[in-house]
Inverse folding.
């Protein structure tokens, strides 16, 4: 029920429960991102600029 309500796998809920049992609420705190961003600042800026152009600029229907 919890997994369905949160739209996650049953295994995720099981892991969360185990973490809670072993470390309480603190164990459920986010550890932050698992890795460094793969895009450089320049690449991210280019991506933002392209996204701002909207879907039609890239061959997709715009609703």
């Amino acid at each position: 029920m919890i997994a369905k309500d949160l739209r996650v796998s049953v295994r995720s809920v099981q892991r969360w429960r185990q973490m809670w049992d072993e470390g309480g609420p603190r164990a459920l705190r986010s550890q932050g991102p698992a890795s460094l961003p793969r895009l450089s600042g320049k690449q991210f800026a280019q991506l933002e600029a392209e996204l701002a152009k909207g879907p039609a600029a890239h061959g997709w229907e715009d609703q």
Q: What stands out?
A: The chain has a mean pLDDT of 93.
